[in-house]
Amino acid sequence: MKIFIGIFVLLAGSMFAQTASQKHPFRFEEMMKLKRVGAPVPSPDGKWVVFDCEDVDLAANTKISHLWIVPASGGESHRLNPTPNHEERPRFSPDGKRLIWTSKATDPTQVWMCDFDPEAGQLVGKPHQVTSISTGADGAIWSPDGKNIVFVSAVYPDCNPPPPGSGVTSDDCNKKRDEELKKSKVKAKIFTRLFYRHWNAFTEFKRSHLFVLSGDARADRSTDILSVRQAGVSPAESQTPGETPGVPTGKMPVPRDLTPGDHDVPPFSLGGQDMYAISPDGQEVAYTSNIDEVEATSTNNEIFIVPISGGAPKKISSSPGADTTPLYSPDGKYIAWRSQARAGFEADKWRFLVQDRQTGNTREVAQSFEYSIGSFSWASRTGEIVFTAERRGTSPLFSTSVGANWTTIAENDGLHADDLTINNGILYFTRMSIQAPNEIWRLDLSTGHDANPTAVTHMNDALLSQIDMQPLESFTFKGANNDDVQGFLIKPPGFDPNKRYPLKFLLHGGPQGAWGNSWTYRWNAELLAATANYVVVMINFHGSTGYGQKFTDSISGDWGGKPYIDVMKGLDYVEKTFPFIDKNREAALGASYGGYMANWLLGHTNRFKCIVSHDGMFNAESAYGTTEELWFANWEFGGPPWKKRDVYRKWSPHEYAANFKTPTLVVHGQNDYRLDVSQGFDLFTTLQVLKVPSKMLYFPDEGHWVLKPQNSQLWYKTVNDWVDQWCK
User: Fold this and answer.
1) 286 vs 299: CA distance, rounded Å
2) Residue 432 and residue 430: Cα distance in Å, rounded?
């Protein structure tokens, strides 16, 4: 099916009735009140969409997710399961009469289930717990035949299944190991191999595995947490002696480990599409794993299949790079997945591979597509796939088919789509912008060029209608090698072209990342512009994604080269082009690679009045030995320091410390294992010894990202106060 949809234009501010003069600048407290909408989950009959939605309680310093439901055609959303428990990731049974989700009614999290009335759009009866595995359960999906549920749990790989008839289970082993670790007064750890810690936690050498249990599993009796708490009795008080609060009595079904062994299924991910799927006939599971390599030095994830009844897995991918997110076509004829051609490079172009399940033949589709493929979903039984791809600061919708090339189906300068799912010919997806966080949208794929995406949810419209959000303005200039480089600008609320404004110049991370028409709670450009009235500028320098693979590749081995030239030429351009920018009041701010670039600027220019360096690399050589993903440094610098010492030293900011003069705020988290906290301490110590005005904001309970609400509040206040101190 070929689909063409004309350009969809959403005029800035058209969804709000109030004029700009009636609105007020964005405030941090309002950002915390915004509801954080999750992925759409349409009911099989196409009448409803269920989704999880996270609320932040700033005073309590907590985040909690609840289940919501909305008519699929759009309308008023309401809570589906009004409990005080944290609940997320809902999934309908294939017949639409049951719903499962992950709940924190117990610790650790477990999978819960309840009957669903498709006509009324509500839960029926009492939710009951369907897993009780001691290591917790998450990521549950139904088999398309409705007979099984597959979920993820992190276990000790050497807790092998005991002999039949022994009276114990592998979960008994996992429970014992966890209890021993928790109760031990000795907190020392012994490592014998790599990946002893990752992202923000020590692994304890547990592995995520896929488990399967019967979808008809029900306990003898269940406890309804809502009714218990409404009666004024705690869950613990409602149980008879020996019962676990909120856990049904009777013997819970024992799940079966589908992927035993010393490997992760699925591998670690910071979000996105599931890395596993079940075949339409319910007989087979496809999944992603890195079995053959050491994860610390390899990105070579592969696709495997295994019978849902258990057995030996079979590898079906062969790329030396990463293969991930397998998804069966609705008719079961094909498996599609995203694949990278180059090993050891996380930012290689994601392409589509499709395998014929009968013949085993695998081929690339949409070969001429130049951008990296993101979220995708099979559209029909005719072999069509709808997908997103990052392109010049946006994420439009495209389609391809097994036997044809690709086409654009929905795009505009502001479309940023993700979390695709298709049901009865309707595409549901999340959409965000620089001015608003995710809401759920829909697109009728059958109406051709006359169709436009329409909003399904309006969870944040009322709050946003009161705020003076500014549009994202794009500009292009000649950067390094005389290449076109894109930048973005946001003006402060109440902008007066006759005034001159200080500048916050933001530096993105990755380094293979990009700024664009997307929402973030961590580096929110609207909030940074609104706080004390700043112009915000963001440059997608060489190495950024969304401009073709050649542009992305150009940063590797050249961290302080072309990107630095782009940053400085971008600064020249905005100073010359926008007379309302006060070039005597400019600050540079960045995190991760952006923190590196902030550190690089310290040693190479004095044009900024102050700098904010968050979780940035300061000493490239020492960073190698303290990061967890060694393949990253091996790719970016061409190998380890003892083989490429000249490259590490050439691009290491600490080598240029003698030039440091710019006042600098250093920010780092103790649990940042991507760039160890020692990088921040090293930078701050150097600045202090050099008597450069400096301050350090240290988070003992954060990792690479600042996520806790009150920590985020302190981060914004400290960062903005620092910039104001030098630029106001």
Assistant:
1) 19
2) 7
For the beta carbon of residue 656, count every other beta carbon within 10 angstroms.
Answer: 14
656-706 residue pLDDT tens: 999 999 999 999 999 999 999 999 999 999 999 999 999 999 999 999 999
CB 326 within 8 A of CB 287: yes
SS3 496: coil
3-class DSSP assignment, residue 402: coil
H/E segment holding residue 286: strand 284-289
Note the pTM of the prediction, 2 decimals: 0.92
Report the C-alpha gap between 397 and 374 in whole angstroms: 10
> Roughly what angle, to the nearest 10 degrees, separates helices 562-577 and 593-604?
80
Question: In the structure encoding, which two tokens stand for residue 265, read together?
Answer: 């299924």
pLDDT class of 167 with cuts at 50, 70, 90: low
Domains in the chain, CATH or no CATH each: 473-727 (3.40.50.1820)
Distances (CA, A) of 462 to 65, 406, 493, 726: 20, 38, 19, 36
Count the neighbouring beta carbons within 10 Å of the beta carbon of residue 548: 14
529: number of CA atoms within 13 Å, CB side? 26
Instruction: Output the six-digit token pair for 322.
Output: 């990463």
Q: Write the CB contacts of 642 (distance below 8 Å, at least 6 apart in sequence).
A: none
Hey, which residues does 556 pair with through a beta bridge?
none
Peptide bond into 266 cis (omega under 30): yes
pLDDT of residue 5: 30
- Closest by alpha carbon to 595, among 672, 487, 480, 701? 672
